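Notes from the 1:1 (GR / supervisor)

We went over the backlog. Supervisor wanted to see one worked example end to end before approving the batch request, so GR pasted a single chain during the call. The sequence is below; no edits were made to it. Supervisor asked that the structure be written out right there so they could see what the output format looks like.
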Amino acid sequence: MAADVAGRPSLAATATSVPKAGCLAQRLRSTVAAMSNPAQPHPSAPSGPAPEPVVGTWRLVSYDVVVRATGERFPAMGERPVGYTIFSREGRVWFMLTGGGREYGDSDRQQAQLLETLIAYTGRYRIEGDEWVTAVDVAWNPAWVGTEQRRQFAIDGDTLQVLTPWRVMPNWADRGETRSIITFERVAGD
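Structure output shown during the call:
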């Protein structure tokens, strides 16, 4: 089990719902456009500079998921996921995480599969001990907009280890409650 920066295990419980169907391309375009122009912060987001340790750009190294009911652990985003997260000094965070080996698809089913291997959101963040809390204002999953997403984290040199709370993730809702164990590497020069 992963531990917080003080070595204590702790998790908060949250749940999300599966987003309604719609035009994938349109949702992705609006998500990317809003993420590149974050002019409107979430109403409950704090203002002021963010703490230093997480500030910078982090490259996704691995994204594993543990199923609560069975203990099964699997690489939900594939063996070589691709993505980045950026924490700004001003207190905004961006996530764009995708599964490895994604290919373009024309059919509704192929496009839905692409959405299952994408996690993208942004918002103002704050640090509370060994957790960061993101007040989400734009997300690939509309159910997350207006929510606070908590993530337990630890930094060891240039490695950022993240542990999500137990929740039903829309990308693999059929597995029930899961939590993600995500590893990032600091991008040189940031």
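Supervisor's comment: The domain at 49-186 is CATH 2.40.128.490 (Lipocalin).
Batch request approved.
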